[in-house]
Structure formats: structure tokens, C-alpha cells
Design goal:
heterodimer, A: 111 residues, mainly beta, six-stranded mixed beta sheet, five-stranded antiparallel beta sheet, 11 strands, 0% helix, 58% strand, B: 113 residues, seven-stranded mixed beta sheet, four-stranded antiparallel beta sheet, globular
Chain lengths: 111, 113
Amino acid sequence: KQEVTQIPAALSVPEGENLVLNCSFTDSAIYNLQWFRQDPGKGLTSLLLIQSSQREQTSGRLNASLDKSSGRSTLYIAASQPGDSATYLCAVRAGSYIPTFGRGTSLIVHP
Amino acid sequence: EAQVTQNPRYLITVTGKKLTVTCSQNMNHEYMSWYRQDPGLGLRQIYYSMNVEVTDKGDVPEGYKVSRKEKRNFPLILESPSPNQTSLYFCASKGLSGANVLTFGAGSRLTVL
């Protein structure tokens, strides 16, 4: 069974720092991986989707990479801002259509 | 606007009083799913559906029912709610193509007294 782990569970940084959030998965035979953002008490917003054939995806200050062989994905946030404060979740889709979620990294960016 | 709509967004009820949380999507997605989210436990899947009249249990199906009579709707039914079903519930949908992203509703916060 696929297991998805996100490290660290929580992160607090000053504004302006470049950040790396990690997502690891146990079964490397994945179809795709998706990063989400969740604000407190709100729904999940899709940030980036990486197909298994891709190495990275970029959207604005966000860059997500995928290394299937090592079972890892990283979400890089450049020049962090207080508005980036949220929980970030990764979801891995393997052979079935059902994605497996990590428990998320709770990020606080303070001014 | 492409979206997943859940109702109600907030509900307080009492033990044993049947309730239904509706979920509707306008993207013609085949796959729909219900999750609950609890502090320290992350997102846990309750039920999912790959298409009309096809439903399957997720990780925590006990105490819940679903139906998929139409492609756009996937209601979550709590026949006899209990306090341990107090949670934040999310509905999500996705097309079966690999390029489709999983799209979530805004969430329904349920409190069972």
C-alpha cells in the first residue's frame, strides 16, 4: 500500500526565505503527483500537477520536482511571503485512480 | 465556473438524526470522492465512485453511505450520526484522464452533539 510522508510537519520562517517542502512515497510506480494548498478551515486548492514522465513543474514562485526512483518530490517556494502561510499537502496517484495524501506541512511565514 | 459544490457548509445536529451532505460537480468528472479531515489524522477517504452506479469503500466507510445515481451528484448520507463523526468533510472530483487535477469542494463542517 502506498504511504506518503511529508517532512517537516510544521515550519515557521521569516518573510523572504526560500523554502523546500518534502514529500516522499513508498511505491515509485506512480502515475502523477499533485501539490495542494489548504488555508485553515478551507478546501484544498491545486497548485501543481506533475506527471510521472515529468521532472518538474513551475507556477510563479512555486517549483515542484519529482524523482520517482528515490520516491521523492519537493515543493520549492521562492521569496516566501506571509500570504504563503497555509498547509501544503501532496497527493500521489499510483496504479488506481485513487490518490494517497500525505498529512501536510503547516507553514507560517512571519513578517 | 468549474467547481465542486457542497451543502451545507456548516451543520450542527444531534446524535441519531439522519442527515445528507450534497456534492455536485459541473465538470463532467467520472471520479468523485468523500474525505474527512481531523486534526492529527490528515485526510481520510470515506467512499469513492469511479462512475454512475459504481461506488467503493475508502479507508473509513463505517457509519456512512453514498449513492451515485447521476454523474454530477455524489451525496454523503449519515443514517444515524454519532459524535465521533464530528469533522470537516470534503468532496472531490476528477476526470479519468491523467492530465486532470483533483478538484475539491469548499468543505462541510459537521458537529454532532
